[in-house]
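Fold Annotation — chain and its backbone
Encoding — discrete vocabulary of local shapes
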Amino acid sequence: MRKSGRTPLIRATNLENNLNIGEIFLKLEGDNPSGHKYDRITEVLVKDAAANGFKQILVCGCNDYIKSVIFFARLKQLEVKVPVFKQGKWEIVHLDKAILMDFQDKDYKLLDTQLRDIAKKNNMYLTCEWDINSTISHLVLEDMIQECLEKMIYKVDTITLQLGYGYTLSSIYSALMKSFIRDDLSQLPELLCATKRISLDIAEKVKKVIIQTHAQIIDVKESDLIQAANMLLKYEDIIISRKESYAMAAFIKKAKQGLLKTGKHLVVLNDARSEIEVREIKNFEEKSKDEFIDTIEAWLSPYNDSVAETLDAVEKAMEKGFLLIAKRNGEEQGICIIVNMGFEHFIPTYHLAYIGVKSGNEGRGVASVMLKRAIELTDGKLSLHVDPDNKRAKNVYTKIGFKHVYDRMLFKGTNE
């Protein structure tokens, strides 16, 4: 089973209110195992290396790419080697010296040729960030955009991404064309690419991809990056590195210039993740039944059910539903229990049995993040109950997208 992919696609309702251009969906690729979109590619590359009998991988690229390869290589018990050039200070400081290869006397202009020669001579699997296996990268990144299209019910007006070496752009375009040919998409969305450099600073092959995909290039400045990272944290509790904020910065820039129509917008964020970590508990060894019951009793004391009722919900959620725990800085801050009702059409398949936050978290976005994760896991087939007098909770649910459909009544005996 693949460890990368299926990252959260959240609806940024607070940003929607700020920018007023319709629906905004954020793909949080920082939720991958090593914290970057690269994981989707490197996991398959490492698998390919192992399948072809290689014992060593020679990897060259940026810090995030190297860390991603190392992460998956360790799982396959493959050795990694990293070339170090004159400017390679990061590798020397942060990586185990045993995996470094001294390239400081090599001619950087002949880099590709030298790397291939060394890989061939030492029977190493070679992967470079700028020259990734195109078949593998296309397949896995097409898979990423397909995740988004399915969640957005094949309705999307713009897709904004960060422009690098062009393979993400070409992969997304390929996935869109396939959906268009199958008639899943009625029209192709506009592709927006963010970069701080254009024209002569972009390699010829990247220019060719831009022309083929009809993508629009948006110039982004350092101040735009800072603004984007700050807005994500302020409005959506999302953390992103400044160097990976180009897509969000470009989207915000276009929106504030009034150059985006009201519609459904997707922004792919390479290393973004929620400040609040939502983790699915898959067995009672991670958190026992008694611990679940104690937590629910403590955090939802005004709305407590009996122990038997709570235990029933927890057991059913473990069996066919979802048990979610929200953490901040490693400490539990929220809990969410979702049970499977067994229906496909009569009523929503899933029901949110319990959701609560630790005291002091009111208004800090913990419940919203858990709800968004719940909606993602259940494909939106989710119902919930809310106390008529709980105005705070009703406001949160309404902002997320829930609507009051009917009142629930329980038989408690006759009045006679």
Q: What stands out?
A: The first strand starts at residue 9 and ends at 11.
